[in-house]
């Protein structure tokens, strides 16, 4: 029998796991490329030209998305497990964080 | 009159001696009908060898929980109209427990873990002493009250994917019981409770997926209870006392 699981907390768990796995796969490659800066500057520059490709730009968006999802998912877990608040209190806190994040990001995008 | 004459009910049959296999029955549809009514109709009218378990029929005893269309539920308190998928229902034994036969799951592992989590009373006084007064509005008492309506139906245990992946994990019900006793002013051995729930398979194995809280038919919140145990064990580890 197929097991039903699609409630918000389970989906948040899945998203946190998948984004974490994605970042775990990315980070070793990230550090490997960064090591070129120390060992082989020309190789690093050649590699960085790749970042002009539209596909890589899209992938960078995905990376930032994974980071953001994992960061806020982690904050969610910390609040869930460490703050003995009631559910409405946590909902309000999450809404406040989301609202302030939206305002500050909009401000940042206008500034740059 | 109901909109349909019959329901198509698929029941998982089998047990330790025979592999589980689905068997489909056509069951008359009525206006007011619970999943337990449907299972009983099959046993009484179509196949007397169908094995299932129930007792009170009113959501008090916790005997009749089964998987209904993939969700663990009290079958006696689940109206067919609420769970129908088209015209069909699929009923199976509770997940994460051994099957005795057909729809009857073996609850032994569930209750063994209840004991392993120190989910039993550690008295502060003997029967010869006066009963200790309890302050009903104390914050601790409120925490304890939040979990005392658990009737051990194992719906949360069956809903939990951590239980599915880790056979040692004590599960939401046992841990919620431990949290209730930990907050009980009449419990004399809180260290024993924290020892039990911080060992292998204890509260720190929980991944906070929340299926226990999402599916508890009594609307209890084992997820928050387990979070409480995580805080209490961490606090003790860093030297803080309750």
Give a structural overview.
- The complex is a heterodimer of chains A (112) and B (242).
- Chain A has 112 residues and is mostly helical.
- Chain A has a domain of 78 residues.
- Chain A is built from 4 helices and no strands.
- Chain A is extended.
- Chain B is 35% helix and 14% strand.
- Chain B has 2 domains: 100 residues, Roll (Ubiquitin-like (UB roll)); 130 residues, Orthogonal Bundle (Fumarate Reductase Iron-sulfur Protein, Chain B, domain 2), CATH 1.10.1060.
- Chain B is of the alpha+beta class.
- Chain B is built from 10 helices and 7 strands.
- In chain B, α7 runs antiparallel to α8 and α7 packs across α10.
- In chain B, 42% of the residues are buried.
- In chain B, the strands form 2 sheets. Chain B has a 5-stranded mixed beta sheet.
- At the A-B interface, α1 and α3 of A face α9 and α10 of B.
Determine the structural class of chain B based on helices, strands and strand pairing. alpha+beta
Structural class based on helices, strands and sheet pairing of chain A = mainly alpha
Query: Any idea of the CATH topology of the largest domain in chain B?
Result: Fumarate Reductase Iron-sulfur Protein, Chain B, domain 2
The stretches of 5 or more residues of chain B where confidence is low (pLDDT under 50) are none
What is the succession of H and E elements of chain A? Answer: HHHH
Q: Please state roughly what percent of the residues of chain A sit in beta strands, choosing from under 5%, 5-15%, 15-25%, 25-35%, 35-45% or over 45%.
A: under 5%
Under CATH at level 1, the class of the largest domain in chain B stands as Mainly Alpha
Q: Structurally, how many domains make up the residues of chain B?
A: 2
Mean pLDDT of chain B: 94
